[in-house]
Design a protein that fits this description.
- Helix 1 (45-67) crosses helix 2 (105-118).
- This protein has helices at residues 45-67, 105-118, 120-125; strands spanning 9-12, 18-21, 27-29, 76-86, 89-99, 130-136.
- The N and C termini lie far apart (38 Å).
- It is α+β, with helices and mostly antiparallel strands.
- The radius of gyration is 17 Å and the shape is globular.
């Protein structure tokens, strides 16, 4: 195994704190969302996870399309990450929506499913988090 890249980010203050990357590229305040009785107005862990997941998944999608020699039209990947509670237990769930207007639905679904199988984030959460994949054409 070869490590291609490692990101290191520290947090002080939890959901009402700040995060900073070791290299100083990322530095921001984190706030609990209003829906969780926070002040909102700043990123939160679920938002940052969704941003990272959507970027990684879209890279996987574009890679799969290129490998299959499929022309992927202008498209977007939207990832929703939900923080859920069942009694004392808290857990995450998610939804990936691939939007590619004008593309064949079945072909896009095949690309989306394959991207989900190879995306490092999808692999990381497999078996630990319910993720639904949907396509819109």
């Amino acid at each position: 195994m070869e490590t291609l890249y490692t990101a290191t980010v520290s947090n002080v203050g939890g959901r009402e704190g700040d995060v900073k990357s070791l290299d100083g590229v990322l530095e921001m305040d984190i706030r609990r969302p209003v829906e969780m009785h926070g002040q909102g107005g700043k990123p939160n862990p679920e938002m940052l996870f969704a941003a990272a997941y959507s970027s990684c998944y879209n890279g996987a999608l574009m890679g799969v399309a290129k490998k299959r020699k499929v022309i992927l039209p202008e498209h977007a990947v939207e990832v929703s990450i939900s923080l859920n509670q069942d009694g004392e237990r808290m857990f995450l769930s998610g939804k990936i929506v691939v939007k590619a207007p004008g593309m064949d639905h079945d072909e896009l679904q095949q690309l989306a499913d394959t991207a989900h199988a190879v995306c490092p984030y999808s692999k990381a959460v497999k078996g630990n988090m319910d993720i639904k994949v949907e396509v819109l054409v």
